[in-house]
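Same chain as my last thread, 529 residues:
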Amino acid sequence: MIRVGGIRLPLSYTEQQLRQAAADKLHIALSRIQTCTLYKRSVDARHKDRICFQVTAAVEVENEPAVLSACGDSSVSLLAPTVWTVPKVTKSISRPVVVGSGPAGLFAALTLAQAGLKPLLLERGQAVEQRREAVAHFRRTGVLDTRSNVQFGEGGAGTFSDGKLNTGIKDPRCRYVLEELVAAGAPREILWQAKPHVGTDRLCDAVKGLRDKIIALGGEVCFENQVTAIATHGGMLSGLIIESPQGTREIACSHAIFAIGHSARDTMQMLYEAGLPMEKKPFAVGVRIEHPRDMIDRSQYGAAAGHPALGAADYKLACHLKDGRGVYTFCMCPGGVVIAAASEEGGVAVNGMSEFARDAVNSNSALLVGISPEDMVGESPLAGIALQRRMEQAAYVLGGGDYRAPAQLVGDFLQQRATTAFGEVRPSYLPGVIPADLRECLPDFVERSLREALPLFGRQLAGFDRYDAVLTGVESRSSSPVRILRDNSGQSAVRGVYPCGEGAGYAGGITSAAVDGIRCATLLIESIV
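reply #2:
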């Protein structure tokens, strides 16, 4: 198989045009191409008057070494298949436990199951089928079911997250993650999209598919089971204390992967009190910003906006302010909605999501200000959690104390006055918003940084700082503010405990968390082979 990059194609290209372009790059006749499939595709919108696709194709031809040798094009290379295999385990150990069923936990458990270890996967929340209904009920009514708060990447539960899979890490296991998700029910397009996106509506099915595969390989999955304490002997893990609807029990356990997500604050507190070394970690907080989807599409695509091959446009903005602090957009949701992401009573936290079609009226993004360890009050490694909680509780009060969220127009925010009514941009957050002054729930330096950054972003993307764009607060769960320390074997100071994924401070999104889950499971396997 040959990887043919650097192909530019019109938005309405045909398969025949793709094959011909690949043949031209290889300097061979079209008839010599046996197969030609998409390997990667992105939108090239640098020139608004000639937007096109930038494509890489996977091509099969006879005598590929000779074709490559004669081509002499640096964008053409041999496409070596990405093969990652799980080592098999023959040594008997007590059943390994995986705590948490986000991307890190699911892929850690899948890896252990493929190795023949038959893991026990503990999930403190509900199965994704029930979680989907619980979240929908919360969004309609504001009635919080705390069992549905377990994270699945990017600060949201399995039904909150919309499955953005783009990542900056270069790891052969990334392809394995995508392939397993497709096999579990995710759309096949994620294999070639430059910014793969599953969609909330499709992600739920993929999560269930992964779970079913773990069970088919001999694993066991228990829902509504929370680890409330760990037992140790001689500095090594010996068991887990678990609370479930059936009561309290202890299970013997010498190996446990803790993939708890970045919002399992009570579990993090328990691990800290159990003596696991931790440290403060940089993170970011801010708000969600909403614009009309068609405005973002026009700003990014010009006259091509609305072309069926393009879909809703995304963006990624960043700046460094005069004081050196960074402000950036994150988790951009084209054609999406702002959603509730609270995991504690008496707090409001917001996130964003898009379904697979990305066809909602608005587009939204997190608008975040970087937080350094020096910004956190006190020496405790959990100081960042305290900062998040203060913001969420203030937002709860400002929103009326019933899980509505405080919201403000960008124009009013810039002029430092409370919003009393909304304009053309209608807030999408359910169960609803209260017009407010977000200064009452944001730290002063966060509010000042956002005010300084908004006009700068307006110059980068036309309309970004329009008066009636809506800010909804607070976005406080972009990443973990804590890192649970681990050594080169993947273990904490309590041997047998493997801190894992985004919650432990070792990932920054679904794919990187899944890869870290695989990494931790592999290290566990290597420790017993």
